[in-house]
Amino acid sequence: MSLSQNNNIQNEQEIEQEIEQQIEQQIEQETEQEIVDDSEQLKMFIFKLIKQLDNFQKNDLIEKQSTTKGRYIVARRNFIAGEEIVNENCYVYVLNDKILKYKNYCSYCLIKRIKDCDKNQFTCKGCDLMCYCSNECLKKGNLLHKFECALINSICQLSSEHRTYFRDLLLIARIMIMKYIEQIITGQNQMYNQFMSLQSHYNEQIEKLKIDFAPVCNDLINLFIPEYRVTLDETLTYLCILNVNCFDISQIAVGLPIKLSKFNHSCEANAKHTHMKKGKIAFSLVEDVKEGDEICISYLNENYSSTSERQRFLYQNKYFYCSCPRCLIPGDNGIFINAFKCCNLNCTGYLIEQFNQMNCIFEQKNYWLCSKCSTKSIYDCQANEQIAVLRFEEATKSL
């Protein structure tokens, strides 16, 4: 081989190496730019969440406090029915276990995926669990998911071993991650501190949670590197707060908006919550509200008709008794939605349930009192059927 041929080969190799180096540099620059872009987007996301925690004044609402109600929200002006009064992105939210399993909904925007969409399309390659409806949602969802992705399979295993909901463990993990990210980006924990200040009913829940959740929470903490870790008591406090304040999102997910968790409950609520995609929840009014009126929502997911059913649910799940007019005034504040004809055949009154808190605690039956003749009765389905038959026979005698 001649000297000129050797030089040509050497030149070609040098050119190839130079091209490879240029390609590698370009990939590195693009990767660095993506990291910078992701970092900036994450900062914007955190600051957006913090900004929405500003007081309610821009929504023409005001937060007040009393010894009997605790924190509550009142209107600063007149509102009309149907008006949206406030909305907020959830601090943390997650799809329910069954929804995650079947990959039918987007983990970021929570909308239903296209029916014919490949289950693995827009699915996280790292954990193979979080799925999305588009490449845009995948990128946005990954801003936070990348911090938990490597732990997902381990959290699933913990959930199976301890027979707990994966959803609950992931919510705890996401709160730990949010605390760390906020501290790194802002140098403080404004959101986290407001989250921790929410009503928790800690004393009512902690003993049971120590038995049911302390072992799995301890294992969950140990999955994280030291920078993320919190104490066992903190994780149990998270659960207390989540149990009391989480919102159901269209029956597919649960989420916790910090500011909206300050609204009180009423069985005669004048506002309701709706889901607006991407973990955002909005409150709109179901009736006109005057300036100075308290704005309440209903914590009941189902239509509990009787006072005892409503109070039992609230006591067992939210750890308080409702004192709204519908609960305090016999006959559901004059609605008589759950009343029966008096068992005295000569009386035209109605048997109204007399609510008793102790019966609610021990799941015992309340007694019923007639609105006219004061007949007292323990409600019995079979007995009331017999009364209904007697009344029917009496009414058809003259026919």
Mean pLDDT: 82
**SSE order:** HEEEEHHHHHHHHEEEEEEHHHEEHEEH
Class computed from helices, strands and strand pairing: alpha+beta
Give me the side-by-side strand order of the main sheet: 11-12-13-14
Please mark out the parts with pLDDT under 50 across 5 or more consecutive residues, or reply none: 27-36
Distance between the termini: 124 Å
Nearest-angstrom radius of gyration? 29 Å
Sheet of most strands: 4 strands, antiparallel
How many helices? The count is: 14
Overall 3D shape: elongated
The percent of residues in helical segments reads 40-55%
Instruction: Tell me what portion of residues adopts beta-strand conformation.
Output: 5-15%
How many distinct beta strands? 14
Notes on the structure:
There is one protein chain. Helices cover 46% and strands 15% of the residues. It has helices spanning 3-51, 97-102, 135-148, 152-162, 166-186, 190-196, 202-212, 214-223, 232-245, 307-317, 325-328, 330-334, 357-361, 381-396; strands at residues 61-66, 70-75, 84-89, 92-95, 247-249, 253-256, 264-265, 271-275, 280-285, 296-297, 340-341, 350-354, 367-370, 376-378. It has a four-stranded antiparallel β-sheet, with no helix packed on it. It has a three-stranded antiparallel β-sheet with strand order 3-9-8, with no helix packed on it. A three-stranded antiparallel β-sheet has the order 4-6-5. A hairpin with a 3-residue loop joins β1 (61-66) and β2 (70-75). α4 packs antiparallel against α8 (214-223).
